Amino acid sequence: MERSPFCLYSEKIRLLYLDVFTKVLRKLFLQEMKKQNINNFAEFLNNYREDLFHLRGKHCCCGNNKQRNSILSNSLWNNLFTIHACTTSAQCPNKSHKSDCFHKYKANKWLTVENDVDFSLICILLRNTCDTKFKNTIEIVQSNRNEVIHTGKARITGEEFELLWGKAKKFLSDVALFVSKELEEQASKEASDIYNYHEKLARYIGEFILV
User: Fold this and answer.
1) β-bridge partners, 106
2) If DSSP codes are grouped into helix, strand and coil, which group holds residue 148?
3) Which string of b and e fits 9-45 if b means at least 16 CB within 10 Å?
4) Collapsing DSSP states into helix, strand and coil, what is residue 81?
5) Pair 27, 35: CB distance under 8 Å
6) Chain segment 92-102, per-residue pLDDT in tens
7) Which ranges constitute the DSSP H helices of the chain?
8) Residues forming a β-bridge with 81
9) Quick check: 2 pLDDT over 50?
10) pLDDT (tens digit, 9 = 90+) per residue, 166-180?
11) What is the distance between the alpha carbons of residues 71 and 74, in angstroms, rounded to a whole number?
12) pLDDT of 3
């Protein structure tokens, strides 16, 4: 049976964010890791574990408890970090602190950017641990993506699609250019493939959305 064009529009936008955008954001993040002379993702997480701990909206032993909004969920934190077998409460420099603190945790060594960082997490990391010049652009990208993914609107008109696609393509180009012109050209080609070819889209949907 022929697919509804309204569903196809929605799937194309979703795929642009879930596949192409995510790959570009990962490239940007890996570039930032390299600039900071960090060798792997686990090392990065351990370097920033205090900052990430505060993104959970938790009080900490350091006394810097201004952060109240929970940006990083407990389930996501638990995927990234585990209580280290060798850690004890004595390792916390604040001996009077009785509740949870970042000193107890170490990043899971098996984590990689390519396999364990999705769109939402990569946006959190780029906005909160990397060069601040990315922050506004990433916030807009995340907001636009949420407009598509989380509104629950499966049917969009051709006019709505062109508007959403145009915004997404602009910011895809902006983010890719933070890395290189070559990445921008590659991302633009992949976006065009999604926009133009129904057959290729069907294969992408099966791999990235319906599994």
Assistant:
1) 82
2) helix
3) bbbbbbbbbbbbbbbbbbbbbbbbbeeeebeebbebb
4) strand
5) no
6) 665 555 567 78
7) 5-15, 22-35, 41-47, 49-54, 74-80, 113-116, 119-129, 135-149, 158-177, 181-196, 198-208
8) 107
9) no
10) 999 999 999 999 999
11) 10
12) 47
